[in-house]
Amino acid sequence: MGRATFRTPFLTVNEDRGPQTVDGRSKAAVGRRPSAVEPLHMNPSTYAPQHFRWDYADRVATVTLDRPEKKNPLTFESYAELRDLFRRLVYVDEVKAVVLRGAGGNFCSGGDVHEIIGPLTAMTMPEILRFTRMTGDLVKAIRGCPQVVVAAVEGVCVGAGAILAMASDLRVGTADAKVAFLFTRVGLAGCDMGACAILPRIIGQGRAAELLYTGRVMKGEEAHAWGFFNRLHAADVLYDEALAWARELAAGPTFAHMMTKTMLEQEWSMSVDQAIEAEAQAQAICMQTRDFERAYRAFVDKEQPTFEGD
Q: Is the pTM of the predicted complex or chain greater than 0.70?
């Protein structure tokens, strides 16, 4: 009896023949960034994703995971669309900051059990590897976009949802939020989507090891005490506070913010001497910007600077 054929957003699989295409492209195109002939810029005012909600105003975009009836799980399709969005934001100068949130009082319950976990058990190793690399590409895209990403976390934030919060630049949460890197509870390793590299940088090696080995829940107050949450807010004002913080950042020297984000990411693989030299060069570049000159003129005139990100 022939084996089944099924589709995901990153591959078409015939279980006898293996993956054939990725979003209509050949296997050779898997994981490749858009070519120079593809449209890289998007209009943030008209962008209309299919698998999450998008709002844009005042130079700040809000990405809302919007399946509240299931606590906003991720699917093959939403993984791929989120990856493609954050890759494209590199070319969207109008967006200066991003808020990432979930609908209905929860952040994200991780990968959908029936739409992801079930199909994964029927895939071959090469097919699974294509999926795990795609999920990692989403983390790379979040960390690689120039915008500061603020995660607003309430309710359930587990599995891949905890990874999305971890991959963000800043995190605000509620005291009753439940964060769990629960991969070991489903028979998987804690090393998923960069968790073993990124989480220790945020909360320390020992605390990260505890969460990744046990998969236990970290409540909001503990997450704040450990440095995972930058700030705590009541649930009814959480999004407003996250949005206000994002707008404050968007009104700042956003080219300099991009440089800070780049250095925070790259300096982990540098020696101290290399980092000092990299920062000397980065700061010299920022000293050539108009924002630096605006700040100087404003100081001389005893005014507040108005930054424009150039």
A: yes
